[in-house]
Amino acid sequence: MGLTRSVGRRAAVLVLLPVLVASVVACATSGGSSTTQPGTAANGATSAPAGDAIRVGTICDCTGADSSTMADWGEVSQAWAQWTNANGGINGHPVKMYVEDDASDPAQNLQAAKVLVEQDHVIAITDGSNVDQGSAAYLKQVGVPVVGGLSFQPTFLSNDDFFTSGSTVYLYLYGEVKTLVDNGTKSLGVMYCAEYITCAGLGNLYEAFAKIDGSKLKVTPLSFSATSPSFDPQCLTLKQAGVQALNIASPDAVIRKIVSACASVGYKPEMILGATSLLATYPQAADADGTVLTSPNANAVDSSVPGVKDYLDAVSKYAPGAMTAPSWSQQLIMGWAGAQLFAAAAKAGGITPSSTPADVKKGLYALKDDTLDGLAPPLTFTPGTQANPACYFTMSISSGEFQTQAGTQPVCVTPAELTAIDKIGG
User: Fold this and answer.
1) What are φ and ψ of residue 188, in 5° steps?
2) With helix as H, strand as E and coil as C, how does the chain read?
3) How far apart are CA 247 and CA 204, in angstroms?
4) Do 8 and 157 have their domain in common?
5) Dihedral sign, CA of 350, 355, 360, 362?
6) How far is CA 329 from CA 80, 124, 325, 334, in A?
7) Residues β-bridged to residue 396
8) Looking at the DSSP assignment, which residues form a beta bridge with residue 18?
9) Which of 77, 238, 288, 394 is packed most tightly, with the most Cβ within 10 A?
10) For the whole model, what pTM was predicted?
11) Which of 133, 148, 405 is nearest to 275 (CA)?
12) What are the tens digits of pLDDT across the range 156-206?
């Protein structure tokens, strides 16, 4: 299910999207590997795998500007590998996970990719980097697929060697607008960080999304400095304008400050946020209850979803310290989803230690509406086109917890809506 876009189409506002969705967090290379990987989901085997390993890698912003929500990416990736091998490996073979940290630097991102490909000989890479543009051209040249991860990155809409494991960025953002419109909200404030000039176009983007279904949602964009000593002026401006809902394009720490500032001046709008910006502790923040969230992947704490339960069980067993770390975030499940996408492709493609990156792609193209046990919207890949899933996930914060909305199923748009969203994007 979903729309495909021909490779090579230009996405008009892709330049601002990493800033909006994740790189706004800017307001140790492990160099090692685990001898494990997610195999249960791949083949259901329970016997211990033996022999040569299937090699897969990941590049992460585990240190640097984006580490506030990404520091534990490597540990999650290794937990996935250990969990997989403990459950039979992939197609009876063990998996070895290599982790490289690019410290949010495009040049280091390229170097990390070269290490994984030329030194570690991986056949696929999961994407945990907000600067993946550094290695995108190189990976396409050598033919090594990027299999899921941070699906909101523009590369998943512009490079057909990037295979998304969640909803892509335009749909994810459209979901925020659609959620408000469906709730009858008439006005939205969009606060964005002034340090990023490209974010000035966010208001226009949200307005365009609102018009898809004929909505008259009024959008009020408002900039702020992440280092400002007070956010009271912006809160008062929105309050006096009668703006009903508020979206904040910023990392968790700044969102908390703005919400608190607005509450202190008597302004408590509906909050609509992207789940990937938030730490696991956000629901316990003051005035967090009632917040509505959209996400490319399933609620990372909803163990009623089989794929999420595997994720939580594996991390709890193999990386328990990560779950109590200050950087533990909703975003990390995207790394698990990417790894599970590789496992699904490996099963479909009969991957072995002697398989090639091209074999991984064949496995990906064999998948049809695969949800990775509920982790992802239905995923289908077609050679020569860019996958654009038609569904996204919604959550809310209630009683200090992330709560799944719409059951455990994603919210899906119509083909006409998806076509309109794609037109706005490119």
Assistant:
1) -135, 130
2) CEEEEECCCCCCCHHHHHHHHCHHHHCCCCCCEECCCCCHHHHCCCCCCCCCCEEEEEEECCCCCCHHHHCCHHHHHHHHHHHHHHCCCECCECEEEEEEECCCCHHHHHHHHHHHHHHCCCCCEEEECCCCHHHHHHHHHHCCCEEEECCCCCHHHHCCCEECCCCCHHHHHHHHHHHHHHCCCCEEEEEEECCCHHHHHHHHHHHHHHHHHCCCCEEEEEEECCCCCCCHHHHHHHHHCCCCEEEEECCHHHHHHHHHHHHHCCCCCEEEEEHHHCECCHHHCCCCCCCEEEECCCCCCCCCCHHHHHHHHHHHHHCHHHHCCCCCEHHHHHHHHHHHHHHHHHHHHCCCCCCCHHHHHHHHHCCCCECCCCCCCCECCCCCEEEEECEEEEEEEECCEEEECCCCCCEECCHHHHHHHHHHHC
3) 14
4) yes
5) negative
6) 16, 24, 9, 10
7) 292, 403
8) none
9) 77
10) 0.89
11) 405
12) 999 999 999 999 988 988 999 999 998 899 999 999 887 766 676 777 888
The reply to whether 163 and 174 lie within a common domain is no
Closest CA to 187 of 137, 128, 247: 247
Q: 159 and 189 share a domain?
A: no
133 confidence band (pLDDT: 50, 70, 90) = very high
Average pLDDT in the 80-98 region?
Answer: 98
For 331-345, write each residue's pLDDT tens digit: 999 999 999 999 999
The verdict on 293 and 309 lying in the same domain is no
- Whether residue 175 is found in the same domain as residue 288: yes
Same domain, 278 and 211: yes
d(CA 422, CA 363): 26
Domain count, the chain: 2
Q: What is the mean pLDDT of residues 227-251?
A: 94
Domain membership of residue 408 (yes or no) is no
In this prediction, residue 196 carries a pLDDT of: 66
Beta-strand relationship, 385-389 and 2-6: antiparallel
pLDDT score for 351: 98
Say yes or no: 338 and 420 in one domain.
no
CA-nearest of 153, 197, 210, 392 to 295 is: 392
Residue 356 within a domain: yes
CATH number for the domain that contains residue 177? 3.40.50.2300
Note down the domain range covering 180: 170-299+413-425
In this structure, which amino acid lies at residue 189?
Answer: G
